[in-house]
Amino acid sequence: MSRPLSGIRVLDLTRVLSGPYCTMLMADMGAEIIKIEQPGNGDDSRSFPPFERGISAYYANLNRNKKSVALDLKDEQAKKVLRDLIKVSDVIVENFKPGTMDKLGFSYDEVKAINPQIVYASISGFGQTGPYKKLPGYDVIAQAMSGMMSVTGWPDSAPTRTGTAIGDILAGLNCCIGILAALQGRVSHRHGDRIDVALVDCSVSAMETINEIYMVENRMPQRIGNRYEFIYPYDSFQASDGWVVIAVGNDALWKRFCEVTGHDDWFAIEKYKLNKDRVQAHEELQKLVTAWTREHKVKEIISLLQSNSVPCAPINTVADVVEDEHIAKAREMICEIDHPVDGKMKITGCPIKFTESAQFNYSKAPTLGKDTKDVLANLLKMSSDQIDHFE
């Protein structure tokens, strides 16, 4: 069986995280990814920790299943090679500062003139249009400007960045979705498209109902810790030996939760029966539930609630996740692949699973320029003398 994107060729001019995450997903799904890197240093993330046997695991995880072609795009012969690659590719993805591709001679109009079928995707901090378009954009800037940091943390804490680079990841996801939509659209309208994805836009979109609180109620959303604004109990609670989350998502679950914890008296209290009222009474309910959880160990709470279909979970460490029999093993979210130079290494697997397509078979990330000669010789049919220029 082939994989869903088999036969799709992508020119990947991205680096660090947002773009490489997008093309990593496409590579996992079977697309041929030709990563264009600057000779000498390559993708900036090749120098990012952690390192395993001299290779950046940051780079190796995000760039598995890809080919590396080293081209200096300020060199005219390298530009000609890229133009020839554009002719035989389906997608080009870049995450330079807006205007950079234009200066290099690869604006959307110039690329479309070479290949009208091309899907041209750009990821940037603030997008290709608007008064902020020339400002540099990083994940933390997206989290700050989208309002995300203003609602992350505790009431008495400073605005807080999420533990992962969620702005970059959201941009990578949305770019991938846009590319897939454009490829499908190409089937009917017979031409490519331009995709413009901004880190800030993606983070604003992810704020969803939090934005509505302000726009509908004219109330400024605040930092509320692990509590959810719209449901309660839906929070983290301290056990005798750690922490758990409990997610009582509706009134029927509240009744069941009260029964299995031996607190029918809570259910009998009128102001706790409906979710909208529990949300209003969240402070006193937090104290009541915590008084119960503190009497039990994490495993005891999880066992009791899960066996009675009350949503809950331990707050795992990364070590817990890497060893988890469901997440790491059954769902194959922690996988072992060949190390780029020697031996094996572990990576985070692809979260998208297919039933009727080939299973994932991850190949190692390329060393810098590893595939330059092969791509130039076999895809572009260049002579040895021509290839020598790039070595």
From TrEMBL:
<dbReference type="InterPro" id="IPR003673">
    <property type="entry name" value="CoA-Trfase_fam_III"/>
</dbReference>
<protein>
    <recommendedName>
        <fullName>CoA-transferase family iii</fullName>
    </recommendedName>
</protein>
<dbReference type="Pfam" id="PF02515">
    <property type="entry name" value="CoA_transf_3"/>
</dbReference>
<dbReference type="GO" id="GO:0008410">
    <property type="term" value="F:CoA-transferase activity"/>
</dbReference>
<keyword id="KW-0808">Transferase</keyword>
<dbReference type="InterPro" id="IPR050483">
    <property type="entry name" value="CoA-transferase_III_domain"/>
</dbReference>
<dbReference type="InterPro" id="IPR023606">
    <property type="entry name" value="CoA-Trfase_III_dom_1_sf"/>
</dbReference>
<dbReference type="InterPro" id="IPR044855">
    <property type="entry name" value="CoA-Trfase_III_dom3_sf"/>
</dbReference>
